[in-house]
Amino acid sequence: MFTPQGPTLRELAVQALSSVERGYDLLAPKFDQTPFRTPDAVLDPVTRALRASGPYENGLDLCCGTGAGLGVLREVCTGRTVGVDFSAGMLRVARDEEPDASYVRGDALALPFGPAFDLVVSFGAFGHFVPGQYARLFSQVRQVLRPGGRFAFPLPAPARPGSLAYWAMLGFDGAMRVRNALWRPPFVMYYRPFILSDVRRELDRAGFDVTLRGLPDLGKRPDGSPRCGLVVATRR
User: Fold this and answer.
1) pLDDT digits (tens, 9 = 90+) for 1-55
2) Which keywords appear in this protein's UniProt record, sorted alphabetically (predicted)?
């Protein structure tokens, strides 16, 4: 699937019927050959935007996967960079990709750090959290940031109702809900619930001041609004 080096359809099926942790352990060696890895076309504009607002000292990549976001931190942080993920398989690949970073196997809902970081980033991981977990997730991020530290992540504009992307995401989320109703353990991955209004409200409640910066390199929608923005939440 996807590329000759990518996972087979059978491998993807086995992953989808596993737990989230086990599924990513299985997929890790071929993850970067799938569309699920955040592309450089997104990482590069985020790097430029953060470089303009930096520099930062210590950085954390939350749910780092195979380390794509650690390359961003390497460019904008002057101190240490750390990746945290609960998949040992993904962390093994990340160590090969970004050997100068440090790695911790841990749960994003129970981060094993004090206020040691000036910047936390995350790419493509929020679908693994249901809305009822946002408050705890953002509270954990606040806990590991120094006062004035920032939590930054790209957030695409919602798909227009009736568009191909809209129906694709609706179909994917519906299939996942059916899968989780019929099969255990669950595999939590939903694309549609993580929307700006809810995210902004929960970040504010967790103690952040929130701004949204456009990423013009990623294009504009027909109404002139950006296709993707960079959410920057500053710890109060």
Assistant:
1) 677 777 888 888 887 778 888 888 888 899 888 888 999 999 999 999 999 998 9
2) Methyltransferase, Transferase
Q: How far apart (Å, rounded) are the C-alpha atoms in residues 16 and 148?
A: 39
The Cα 119–Cα 234 span in angstroms is 9
Structural domains of the chain sorted by starting position, each given as residue range(s) with its CATH number in brackets: 1-36 (no CATH), 37-158+195-235 (3.40.50.150)
Give residue 65's region: left, alpha or beta (phi > 0; psi -120 to 50): left
Residue whose structure tokens are 């059916």? 178
Check: CB of residue 153 under 8 Å from CB of residue 228: no
Report the pLDDT averaged over residues 192-209.
94
Give the pLDDT confidence of 144-173 residue by residue, as tens digits.
Answer: 999 999 999 999 988 888 888 889 889 988
